Amino acid sequence: MKTYIYTSIPSQCFLGEGPYWHAGRQSFFWVDIENGKLFEHHLKTGETKTRSYPHYLAVVLESEDGNLILGLDRKVAQFDLETEELTWLCEVESDYTLHRFNDGKVDPKGRIWIGTLSTKFTVGAGSLYCINRDLEPKNKLSNLTISNGMAWTEDNQTFYFIDTPTRQIKAFQFDLETGEIEFEKIAVDIPEELGFPDGMCIDRDGMLWVAHYGGSGVYRWNPKNGELLDKIELPVPHITSCCFGGENLDTLLITSAQENMSTEQLKKFPMSGDVFLVKTACQGYLPFKSEF
Fold it and tell me: Using an 8 Å Cβ cutoff, are 262 and 34 in contact?
């Protein structure tokens, strides 16, 4: 395993999540879900801006025009970065007031994939939805508990997905034109001592970089044979997600959380909830933009 050097951005999130690289602004975005905060860190200036919303804020994505798509509670909204106006687009699970979004990505066709969970973490209560231009969410997977990390292979043939408590990364056959998915195999089984798989991203070698909640790092897995290749060790236990960004797409922004930690643990790991930047020898991809 290599030794990685990190720099930290002191955001002190209760539940940091949703990292996103916005190439047009040369900024990283991320959220503090429980506190409804949206962070923007400009890489060159080092400045960090914070916006707040009276909602659970779980997902940051980008529309074709460079504005943001946000997942707030169970609703998807467009956010104009200039006027700061929110335009509500659609909602899922309106009858389930204890539910919220958790993680989301845009696929190579510009469709939004976004998952839910119960804030009581009820087993099997969550689902994964796909939203295209008609703004009618289609249920793709149900009986999920913590719908989480997603990634697509460069050839658009495979979709990887994490339902955190299963400790598995599943591979699905993916039809780019229709957006249909079909279970293919369990690509990676995470050993219990390494924590729980959370958010993830994919590099240009087709390897998966996975945040391990309770595992104190980001782990690089080979989904072709399930082998662990590398780990970025970090000074906090609850690592929640990661994404590639920066000029060469070789900088990993990594989020973390303070939740489920005692006062003693927070004293022991005072950087919990901060964000970490790590230069890697790998490159990721620019994120896809939503078609609306």
Answer: no
Q: Is 271 within a domain?
A: yes
Which residues have a Cβ under 8 Å from the Cβ of 191 and sit 6 or more positions away?
167
Residue from 198, 203, 230, 274 carrying the catalytic annotation = 198
Domain range for 94: 6-279
166 phi/psi in degrees, rounded to 5: -70, -20
CATH number at 138 reads: 2.120.10.30
User: What whole-number distance in Å separates Cα of residue 13 and Cα of residue 229?
Assistant: 29
Q: Residue type at 100?
A: R
Task: Say if 268 falls within a structural domain.
Answer: yes
Return the percent helix, strand and coil in the chain, to nearest 5: 5, 55, 45
Is 219:191 a contact under the CB 8 Å cutoff? no
* 198 counts as catalytic: yes
Question: How many residues appear in the chain?
Answer: 292
Partners of 45 in the β-ladder: none
Domain count, the chain: 1
Residue 165 lies in a domain: yes
Written as tens digits, the pLDDT of the chain (292 aa) is: 889 999 999 999 999 999 999 999 999 999 999 999 999 999 999 999 999 999 999 999 999 999 999 999 999 999 999 999 999 999 999 999 999 999 999 999 999 999 999 999 999 999 999 999 999 999 999 999 999 999 999 999 999 999 999 999 999 999 999 999 999 999 999 999 999 999 999 999 999 999 999 999 999 999 999 999 999 999 999 999 999 999 999 999 999 999 999 999 999 999 999 999 999 999 999 999 999 9
Return the bridge partners of 69, or none: 61, 78
Q: What burial letters (b/e) apply to 13-30, b meaning 16+ CB within 10 Å?
A: bebbbbbbbbeeeebbbb
Structure tokens at 266: 């927070």
Does some domain include residue 289?
no
